[in-house]
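Section 5: illustrative case.
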C-alpha cells in the first residue's frame, strides 16, 4: 500500500497538533519545560487524607494543586490514582524557593494557584498566622 507524500505529511502534522494541544507536566527527570504562576495560599494537610489518599503533616513540604491542573490526570474519577500524586514542584516567591510534593487537590484554587502546607509557606518567608495569599511562580521537577 502506497501513500502520497502529502497524505503522510498531513497525518504527521495532525499528530503533532494533537500532542501539542494536550499540555502535560514535564516527565520525571526531564528539564523544566514551563513556569507557572499564581496565588500561593496555605492549608493544613494534617486534618485528614488528601486527594491522593495519603496522610501528611503540616511540617512536611507538600502542596494541594489547583483542580484545573490536577483533575485531567485523575483516571476514572479516582483522585487516589492521579498520576501527579507525589510529583515535585519548585515554588518561588519572596526571593526564596522551596521544593514540595503534590499530595492533594485544591478545589477553590484557579489555574496556576497552589495551596501550600504551613512549613512550605514558612520556607518562603511567610507567616501563616499573619498572612494568607501571595503571588509566586513554580515549575515541574
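Designed sequence:
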Amino acid at each position: 500500500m502506497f501513500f502520497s507524500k502529502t497524505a503522510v505529511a498531513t497525518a504527521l502534522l495532525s499528530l503533532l497538533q494533537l500532542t501539542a494541544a494536550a499540555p502535560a507536566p514535564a516527565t520525571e527527570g526531564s528539564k523544566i519545560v514551563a513556569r507557572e504562576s499564581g496565588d500561593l495560599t496555605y492549608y493544613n494537610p494534617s486534618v485528614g487524607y488528601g486527594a491522593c489518599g495519603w496522610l501528611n503533616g503540616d511540617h512536611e513540604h507538600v502542596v494541594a494543586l489547583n483542580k484545573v491542573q490536577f483533575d485531567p490526570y485523575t483516571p476514572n474519577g479516582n483522585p487516589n490514582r492521579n498520576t501527579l500524586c507525589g510529583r515535585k514542584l519548585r515554588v518561588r516567591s519572596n526571593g526564596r524557593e522551596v521544593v514540595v510534593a503534590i499530595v492533594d487537590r485544591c478545589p477553590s484554587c484557579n489555574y496556576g494557584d497552589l495551596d501550600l502546607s504551613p512549613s512550605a509557606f514558612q520556607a518562603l518567608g511567610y507567616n501563616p498566622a499573619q498572612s494568607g495569599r501571595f503571588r509566586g511562580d513554580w515549575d515541574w521537577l
